[in-house]
Amino acid sequence: MDETVIEYIRRTVLKIPRKEIKIMLQKWGFLSRSQLQTINFQQTKENISRRVALLCQENSADIKEAAALDIIYNHVYPNKRLWSVYQMNKTIYQMKEKETEFFDIRDFKTKFKRKLHSALENVTINFREYDDSAIWIRIAWGTPYRKPNQYKTSYVVYHSQTPYAFVSVSMFRSNVPLLLEALVAASNYNHICAMELRSHSLNSLKEIVFNRYSQNFQTYYPEALQEHSVEPESEPQIVHENRKTKEKIQGMNQQAFWDCSLPKLEYAQYKLETMFESDPKMGVLHRKQPFRCLVKFSSPDLFESLKSLAATSMAETSLSPLLTCIPQKPMNNFRITEETSLISGRLSTSLCLN
Amino acid sequence: MAVLRPFDKLPVLNTASLLLVGSDQRLQQELAQAIVKEKKSSNISIHLATSLPLSSERDHLRPRIDLIVFMIDIKNKYSLKNVKASLAHVAASFFLGKVCFLVTGVGRVNYCSVEINSIWKLGEVYCSPVLFCELELEGIRVATAQRLLRMLQICAGHVPGVSALSFSFLLRSSN
């Protein structure tokens, strides 16, 4: 057990960029100051990691300390994992009953551990609390016959004052229901459902989900103000021929995106299950079966690239509401089905978003 | 007034007008500012447009265009499509030395998405010179501005002894 733990610590240190190793070891606090001073941080990472492993062996590190280092690393570099968002809710009965409820961290931890251990013996669970009332939970999964695999871990970031949890599962997707059950039981909610939102950038997900409440206060930019906000021609010799269209597009962008800094999402996925509308005479799939296709927009930063469509004149009209509604209803996986309704005896169809 | 003609307006004394057509507005603006900063003996006016045809509302305010520069961004297939669509709105007599193709973004070879062959062909078909540049670098931007300014002066007839047509023959590579 000791050998594997030391090797795990060494490999975690290898993941950290060389300039940050000293700071992270200080944050970790397992090695004393005098021990840290004996490490030469100018040598190669390989040598630094061996030295750290030696010192940890002297201090007889156990799995708890190793897990703490892993949590710190993931807290500083959360963008290496793919996070999905889950929302928990209570039934109305439960909400009315316990109105003045305060959050007890120890209670949460014991309930979580108990629930997980009752289903699966071989798991390693570690907690770490941070200032913004975020609880980072690290889980290493095993099977009934094998010890937990420390390299394939799942993380849960739970903000105790909100009903949202951010989960990152690296492998072993079959354990996700178990994890969610434990989370619900520990946090005194009733059920949990997955929001269709996934991204690598944890901070952006938090921004989108927590800022939802502030979006009711939309500021309205009246027309007169917009004209002043377009910068006046700096040189009288440079004439913009398409000035009117440029202003129009800038106005549309402002309306769609409110000129504020947008969160960083990597993709938006639309699963289409709509009817293919072709010339009836052609008879190819015309309204016979729903046409299934998947449209995915991906980019290192989706909203920036959408904004720049107008600047590079690739978009001449305003963007589709399917794209601009993403910050409001936090979703980036959509399923679009056909909705048919009978209006004055004729069939009319419109796209139904869900 | 959909088609741009070279000689349908009277020239203004000691003035030259340049029309930049391209889809990336930010780069256009930067290039225009670089041209304006250069030392010159005549008045220069630069018109920026994203595509042709130009709106007919401001037609009476517009001076005679001496040189049209079509900006193609090598990273953006749309810019080539835009330029090809705009070429239809230029009268044939413009192509006697008063049109030039400027290919930008050549510094970023990794993101190249337009075929250079298609651009060479465009230059051959329309008998116009093709210039390559990278407008994000200060030095090259200034150099390009100087080249375009010199071409503009020749096309406006400010350089005695050299006409736009003879200059374009000089620029054509001899096969």
TrEMBL record, chain A:
Compartments (UniProt record): Chromosome, Centromere; Nucleus
Keyword Protein transport on entry: no
Main subcellular localisation: nucleus
Keyword terms, alphabetized: Centromere, Chromosome, Nucleus
Domain of life from the UniProt record: Eukaryota
One Gene Ontology term from the biological process aspect of the record: chromosome segregation
Gene Ontology annotations for the cellular component aspect, listed alphabetically: inner kinetochore; nucleoplasm
Similarity section: Belongs to the CENP-N/CHL4 family.
Full protein name: Centromere protein N
Encoding gene (name): CENPN
From TrEMBL, chain B:
Presence of the UniProt keyword Nucleus in the record: yes
UniProt-annotated location(s): Chromosome, Centromere; Nucleus
Short name of one Pfam family: CENP-M
Alphabetical keyword list: Centromere, Chromosome, Nucleus
GO cellular component, one term: nucleus
Principal place of residence: nucleus
UniProt KW Nuclease keyword: no
PANTHER family for the chain: CENTROMERE PROTEIN M
Protein name: Centromere protein M
Annotated gene: CENPM
